[in-house]
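Students often ask what a holo structure prediction actually looks like on paper. The answer is less mysterious than it sounds. You provide the chain, you provide the ligand, and the output is a string of discrete structure tokens encoding the 3D arrangement of the protein together with coproporphyrinogen III.
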Amino acid sequence: MTSPTSKKSMIRALKGECLQPPPLWLMRQAGRYLPEYREIRGNVSGFLELCYTPELAVEVTLQPIRRYGFDAAILFSDILVIPDALGQALRFEEGEGPKLDPVRDIAGIEALSIDGLHEHLAPVYETVRRLSRELPSETTLIGFAGAPWTVATYMVEGGSSRDFAIARRWGLLEPDGFTRLIELVTKATAAYLCRQADEGAEVLQIFDSWAGVLSEGEFEKWVIEPTVKIVAAVRASHPDVPIIGFPRGAGVLYERYVTETGIDAVSLDSTVPLDWAARHLQDKVTLQGNLDPLLLLGGGEAMDKEIRRILEKFASGRFVFNLGHGIIKETPPEHVARLVEVVRGG
Ligand code: CP3
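The corresponding structure tokens follow.
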């Protein structure tokens, strides 16, 4: 192989090679379960300051790589920097999660602007640039963004939600207005991901954390269509950068997502049956997943057993080991060390 990146196991697996042991990284591998993260987090005024200070964002991205030697590092940032960059100011209140002044009508959409996007996100691009220089040569740098539907839920609801009723109702009852919001976020997200790739991101992951609450018709309009546009935009400027999609909770719609969006790999949540995924998805894309983060929290024999079951079902095809969702903040770091040992053959 001639490509300079082809020695990296993560890229090889995403391009279709079947590797044993599979490459390994974990969603939310940087974060509050690590004491070294909590120390840095304790010295800044808020979470967003961490995202927008390249020196600190680089440091917290590297922490789990130093500790565990994962095959990939994911840029430290958040999916909600996009609304922030569009002019919908974002706050993270201690213990309460994200808060935004909700956008619920055309006037709200018109108050947003994509013009300052790259300027606002310049510190994130600087973080990507520094990481691509500083990471060990075998470690792949993953850039990411939220998918338009998931980001729009936070923009419309004004923060986290239990049922996404306000966003869904807007989409169902006034689809023209809601489409304008989705289109704005789609355009911003495509531009953002392309810039991450320009600056050195070697793989991109699109997080659609709330894809699972939609009916098939909504899924088509708010998940598949925008993802198709983002994939096309990235491919136009970066045809070799693999894209991982994560339509969490999509159930049987995982299959339409895989066949219709053109992504290279799909991240499976823990509810997806392994045999079903191996049979219906693994011949089309690389699978990533899907240990339940609660088993990692609990550790012990139950975790070891499930890791071995996942390896057995997936490791004969295209596969990247990961969790079904992000690491839970109470997880003991020793359990992560044990996971690494078991995946790599212990
Ligand atoms: O290590 C990594 O995975 C990279 C960094 C990363 C973060 N958030 C850091 C973060 C990534 C990839 C995300 C994605 C993200 N952010 C998603 C999609 C994935 C998922 O979990 O479903 C979503 C929905 C968000 C939005 C978000 N960010 C919420 C709802 C919250 C508050 C809840 C919480 O976990 O605290 C955040 C904050 C956040 N993002 C933290 C971290 C490390 C914790 C903030 C802190 O340190 O105080």
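The longest strand covers residues 140-146.
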